[in-house]
Design a protein that fits this description.
Layout: H1 2-16, E1 29-39, E2 46-52, E3 58-64, H2 68-73, E4 86-93, E5 100-107, E6 113-115
Parallel strand pairs: 3-5
Antiparallel strand pairs: 1-2, 1-4, 2-3, 4-5, 5-6
Amino acid sequence: MLGFLLSLVLSGPVMAHHSFAAFDGTKRLRLTGTVKTFQFTNPHSWIQLVVTTNDGRSEQWSIELLSPNVLLRSGWHRSSVKPGDRVTVLINPMRDGSKGGNLVAVTLANGQTLLGGAT
C-alpha cells in the first residue's frame, strides 16, 4: 500500500506537464505588437499579443511562457508586462502554423529584455 501511494505522489508532476513538441524549436519568429492580456498563472503563463500585419490587419497571437515560479527566477514580475504595452517577442512558432508560440524572449518598450525562462 505504501508503495502504491508513493508512486501516485511521484507520478503527479510528470502527468501534469505537457510536451513542447507543438512548437518548432528549429525556427524563431520575431513579432512586435500590443499586449492584450498577460496571465501570470500556473501551470503556464500567457501573453495575448495583437500584431498589425503589413496590410493593416490585426492578428491575435497566443504566446506561452513557463510557470510564474520559473519566470520569477528569471527576473520577471507579475507586472513585467501589462495590457497596452508595446513589446517585441521572439518565439518558437507553432509547428502547425497557427498564431502562437513558445516565448524565447520579450523586449519591453524601455529596451529591457526578459528571457522566456527556458534552460
